[in-house]
Amino acid sequence: MSQPNQFSLLKQRRFAPFFWTQFLGAFNDNLFKTALVVIITFDALSWTTMSPSLVTNLIPGLFILPYVLFSATAGQLADKFEKAGLTRFVKWLELAIMSLAGIGWVTHHLWLLIAAVVGMGIHSTLFGPVKYAYLPQQLKPEELIGGNGVTEMGTFVGILMGEVLGAVLVVQQPHGLWLEAAATILVAGMGLVAAYRIPQSPAPAPELKISWNFIGESVRNINYSRKNRTVFLSMLGNSWFWFYGALILAQFPVYAKDYLHGDHSAFVLLLTIFSLGVGSGSLLCERLSGRKVEIGLVPFGSIGLTLFGIDLYFASLAYSGAALAGAHLDAFALLAQHGMWRILFDVLMIGMFGGFFIVPLFALIQTRCDPAHISRTIAGMNILNALFMVAAAGLAIVLLGQGLTIPELFLVTALLNAVVALYIFSLVPEFLMRFLAWLLIHTIHRVDTVDAERLPAEGAAVLVCNHVSYVDAIVIGAVAPRPIRFVMDHRIFKLPLLGWIFRTARAIPIAPAKEDPWLMEKAYVDIAQALHEGDLVCIFPEGQLTRSGDINDFKGGVAKIVERTQVPVIPMALRGLWGHLLSHNHENVFGRAFRSGLRSRLSLAVGVPVAPRDVTPEDLKQRVAALRGDWK
């Protein structure tokens, strides 16, 4: 049966009012900020004597400064109070701030507008923990990737539309400033109306006592998150994305004017392409992940961010705009310039791979952190985001002050991304392991699942599966909703490359008693410990799988483990790997590849869980055989 599309959430009250509230908030932020950046960049002399490059890097820094100061408080408020009511308070605050900004626009008062930038930063700081804590409360686990994808798409489409409209309205003479003021107030009012449709979302910790010491609470939040290594490093990865994005996006106004020799529409074009990239990448995450939290997409996204960031540098050098010095071409004229399409393609790909990078990280944090602490975890992440973005603004100012060009700044950012990614993935090899597994089932194989929802999202269980090839564990791990501890033959565990993957996945090597009785007994101890900690443990109970598919030695393995641990047993069967190049029998692999095409079709069938008291070797053997059917 086909599963509902992620866009079906937009028809449901549990998601739609929230979506439009956050969409209009992102739209208004950028409607305001972009108009201010454009007016400073292209009409600087009538507003300030400061360098346009300095001001355009200063504005994002001031916007995210409240994240550093108030995120800890915002996280506590979001955990203590009901989220719909808190959202309405935030939207009333936005309306007040935009009214203040309106006065700044019509009176031509720059510092009043900059104060409004800080005010909108406070608005976003308060809404951030509510936004990402609301989703796991209202969405099912299998909807979370799609919901996050639609949310991120909406955020960046809102950013795009706000940037486009802000850049267009503010330059309309002679009423551009009045139009800008009216538009921001109107959008704030629309967001407030949408907020009143958000359904009740109970507070997870209503008894929480608010600590107003934002420094101490910020430290406590981050220290609490550090206890969960995977969550904390995912928070760092998320913050790095915002460092990368802030560093790149802050240069677009001056890059469009001084390097592309365009007018304000050239800046809008760059923002449009980037936002379309992030939006499309975010939406593709659900399809590429198979509706589960697939962190294998994170390294994939990081690779793209580096490669296309580097190519943006070389594309900028190859651009033919040097002959246009002094010109200010519009977007349509720029499209006719040699090398412009390559620049736009790089910007699009940076946005798309950014979507692949950021959406799974959000979903991972939402699903693996303490539910009672989720808003404070998001607040801690926002603090890190803010620090990283302030650092990005500071680094840009320093490097540009030292004489680096903007294309060289793109190159430095891309190379830094490669270094940071390697560091994070070396600390949490699960990311790279999942990436290799994801790559396997999306290139060499097409993997279908039958009743995969029977794999538990939480709690301990023993998975029992037939053993066909050396990549069985990778295929199963790529399909599973969470990490699995695999029990495998010690010889396979030592294979080059695959062995590294299995060690990274914390697989448990086992040997027959006649070969290594100590290793066998140690394996049983490790299995019991893993199940005690609530993990999934997968066992391939065959001794040597014959061509007929008979399973031997059930009695000495599964029965002993279940007797010790008393957890449910879930039979499974892999179909289609027999004859694979990495299978135990691949004499006809080339003929098989010719018949089935370049990508072989695999299937993983999951059976009904069996209570520990009902587990017998013969019954399990029959269940696995029935799931396997006539497949090889």
Automatic annotation (TrEMBL):
It comes from the Bacteria. The chain crosses the membrane at residues 20-42, 54-77, 230-254, 266-285, 297-319, 339-362, 383-403, 409-428. The keyword GTP-binding does not apply. The keyword Transmembrane helix applies. Keywords: Cell membrane, Membrane, Transmembrane, Transmembrane helix, Transport. CDD domains: LPLAT_AGPAT-like, MFS_MefA_like. This is MFS transporter. The lineage of its organism: Bacteria, Pseudomonadati, Pseudomonadota, Betaproteobacteria, Burkholderiales.
